[in-house]
Amino acid sequence: MDTDQAPFEPLDPGRNNPMDPVELAYWCREFGCTEARLREALAAVGEHVAEVRAWLAQTR
What we know:
Helix content is 53%, strand content 0%.
């Protein structure tokens, strides 16, 4: 049996979905941040990936 799984890709790659734990983990890996930091960014700027990325870069 093949145990390799396709890498996870979010349904909407332009948005973060904070309600999906698998997607949260994906974005944490993508942004190189903790879940707490990602949630802080989401609270500050919303769910759009570009805005979250910019916020994380500005607040390092």
